[in-house]
Structures
1.
Amino acid sequence: MVSVSTPVCDIGRVAPDFILPGTDGQQHTLTSLAGENGTLVMFICNHCPFVKAIRERLIVTCRELEAYGVRSVAISANDPSLYPEDSFDYMKAIAQALDFPFPYLYDETQAVAKAYGAICTPDFFGFNNDMRLQYRGRFDAAGKRPPTPGMRRELFEAMKQIAMLGEGPREQAPSIGCSIKWR
């Protein structure tokens, strides 16, 4: 698999709205998922080794962010004909097995991923309470490796700062992951 990096954060960009089906059987909109102090929109998938490497820590991070008024949502936009593990049925199984603390949505047309400019999994978009982009960086420096003791929790720190100040860090390291599997 080829890994790609996200571009520099377009700070202040307004979050594109959407309506997408979730693994919970409900339709979700960005507005219905917005957090009081911020919203984290994550593009992930089931098969990507970069996502698999952080999945358990991501779940913990999203649970911790709730205490700061930050809600999270994950979206998969991969074409399952290329990677059957990314099918909607498999998304449901993963979300249930891992007890995701966030809605896991399916972008079958890939229109939402394109509207956000998502290019890889994982790709993180951190918005303030005005739905203006403040963070587009990595989870942490570990990538696919296990984290080292004392490693900064960059995504957590950024979203906590957004919740408290309305602005994200000005220095952001790009996320790296597998390319989105476009139709």
2.
Amino acid sequence: MLSKTLTVKNPSGLHLRPAGVLSQTAMKFKSDIIVEYGEKRIVAKSVLNVMAAGIKSGAEITLICDGEDEAAAMQTMTEAIESGLGEM
């Protein structure tokens, strides 16, 4: 299991479009991918769960990848989040 703390850089947080990009990226991997935000644990492969979490711009999240391709998942997901999920 790998975990990493990241800051959401999207100007308007994880609304529909960036949440969709995050979920689509997560679905490419066999590993379980969880986003922790405050007290919430969100399954990253569900766009509705990601949107419902209400993650705002500048929020700190913890990304957790657990499974056979966790290292690749962590690297790809980190790059996607740090690049603004297609919005920057």
3.
Amino acid sequence: MNIGLLLFIPNRDVENRVLAAVNAAGFDVTQAQARVLMRVDPEGTRLTVLAEAAQVTKQTAGFLVDQLEKAGYVKRVPDPADGRARLVKVTGKALGAVPVANEELARIEVEWERHLGRRRMAQLREALEMLGEITDPYR
């Protein structure tokens, strides 16, 4: 199996499990919406930046942000750096999902460490962080 697929399969499982936990806690978001929502900076993010980070078209990002705004997870505010531009910011409702997501992530890490062992889990984390240095354009 190629390395890309080996990385994708556990990532997909993490995304699915976290989203299921968030939805079970009463936060109604789709995977596509969550991928955009996760990329909103605390100070706000322009739609074009969100589209690029989520690797979707500006139109798709706009559609997803519209849905998130209607559901109360984000709001659009004027960009203080450019009065003509708008920023997307998360709301308190969206922030309420963060502890739920973090709890599920912690459960997953415990499960993986039990399966891999403490040393291998630490090595996996270190290797992935090192790979992030050369693969994450938003780092």
